[in-house]
Amino acid sequence: MKVAHRTTARSRSGARRGIAWLMSLVCVLALVPGTARADNPIVQHIYTADPAPLVHNGRVYLYTGHDEDGSTYFTMKEWRVWSSADMVNWTDHGSPLNISTFSWASANAWAGQVVARNDRFYWYVPVTNRATNSMAIGVAVGDSPTGPFRDAIGRPLVGNGEIDPTVFIDDDGQAYLYWGNPNLWYVKLNPDMISYSGAATRIALTTAGFGTRNGNASRPTLYEEGPWVYKRNGTYYNVFAAECCSEFIAYSTAPGPTGPWTYRGTIMPRQGGSFTNHAGVVDVNGGSYFFYHNGALPGGGGYTRSVAVEKFSYNSNGTFPTINMTTTGAPQVGTLNPYVRQEAETIAWGSGIETEPSSEGGMNVGWIENGDYIKVKGVAFGAGATSFAARVASAGSGGRIEVRLDNSTGPLVGTCTVPVTGGWQTWTTSTCAVSGATGTRDVFLRFAGGSGNLFNVNWWQFSGTGGSGGNLLTNGNLESGTTGWGVVGSGTLSSNTAVVHGGTGSLSITGRTASWNGPGQDVTSKLTNGKSYTTSVWVRSQSGTPSAKATLSLTANGTTNYLQLTPATGVNANGWTQLTGTATASWSGTLTGAIFYVETAEGTDSLLVDDVSLQ
Fold first, then answer.
1. Is there a single domain that holds both residue 128 and residue 252?
2. Which of 108, 114, 472, 496 has its CA 20 to 30 A from that of 538?
3. List of residues 6+ apart from 310 with CB closer than 8 A
4. From CA 69, how far away is CA 19, in angstroms rounded?
5. Of all helices (H) and strands (E), which one includes residue 26?
6. Domain identity same for 260 and 361
7. How far apart are CA 586 and CA 502, in angstroms?
8. For residue 600, what is the domain's CATH number?
9. For a pLDDT cut of 70, what percent of the chain falls above it?
10. Rounded to whole angstroms, how far apart are CA atoms 160 and 138?
11. Residue positions annotated with a catalytic role
12. pLDDT tens per residue across span 530-567
């Protein structure tokens, strides 16, 4: 684990570098040929805790706390956001929320949760109220799942000295905020999600409802903290951390959101090197996933925790199976497309690296030293890649990016030279030839060079004439002008080389006369009925943040249906908005027309589009 914030000299302490070296040794030992690669915990470059997953447009957004390096208490100053489309390669979105966001808070960025409503995202967190020096629940709001977030009301939403908020929105639209340690409370949130009606109600902690704790007359039930409430098939679940210390994860069920609760037993037994645990449960893309934390990384323990995930299946009667911690983690869903721009901070496993905000938007990988690497899992090269490009910067000595397959010392398929650029945020694109990258393989970007910090990496992308990597769109990277693209409705297409998201070209559309006008492609012959497709589009509009969306029109038996694929999920520093998501294309009868296109919810702004994929 490296130091969490870079010094001016980009130095690292010997102790932390030693931990990073130990992590590298563990990784190398795990990568011997024929040995399955462990990918749990899912984040390795900082300590993370208290996972709270959110599914939004087919992508999992994971909100965590951040245990500071070397902590001997719950020293936590910020919250972090990660996301994944495949459950193994996780993108670091940095920290869009910290203690200073709340002017009335003094400390303790502890376990929170984000929920989506009203086209906004509400983050409920426990912090120390400076006025009372006790814990209270604050609420922040953002316009995208990755923020930025701002204090929604400028004061605590509710406060009684207890912690660990979770929010559940029932089918009738009523939202509930639950929290508590040592008690369990709830309030009914109003539709604005930042106020509530009535008084806080304490849920009766009975042994029938929450199990029996032995030897503690003042606290007779197993309930400890960290509730996670949700509904599945008409049954309400309350998953919670039980009986400190050390904690295990248990659960109760009820016929309604406020009870009466019935204790159902243990989900995850005591294990994992941390005396606390904290769970989050979601369903996505046909699978069920259980998030938790442990102390599995080097230097890990009760105050230096790490988030992990397991895939599971409910029993036929809706009960949980026993779930144990593994180093394997969840299986990959689908593959990763190397022929569209991928952020360097999208990582299945990293050794020696850190991340930081990039001047070009998002995050970049930094603090790179000789022998450090990142792993990207399940990369679908198809018939083959012929070149590799990476966006790099160096105020150090520069170096090399070795593109290797299968493990960090595996087959070398390309080497890109990284020049000295004159600054850690002075960016250039380095390219190199690639040979032998075919099929679906794990990719290791191994960094090499002299001593000290070498360079930063912002993003990377492969190109290839032998295969599209699964992208159904022609000229999706827009490096070949307007080839493959047409206009849905009205407008004029042209190639733009002055303002790009990646590479040297983007697509411009002007003269739109309706919001549904936009650039598109016919994909009728390329779709499979009932198949899920993942999209990624980068859009920039004339007047600022676009209300853009990617849409698939499906015409069968004379009827046209419109499938919205990807609403906006965030804007980077250069004004580009990424649209990402997964949706299932289905129709009845014979498909006679299918058009993929980019439109807006309103307005007729001119648009720039770049790095588009449908796969």
1. yes
2. 114
3. 40, 289, 290, 292, 323, 324, 325, 326, 329, 330
4. 11
5. helix 14-30
6. no
7. 32
8. 2.60.120.260
9. 91
10. 12
11. 50, 224
12. 888 888 898 988 776 678 889 999 998 888 999 988 77
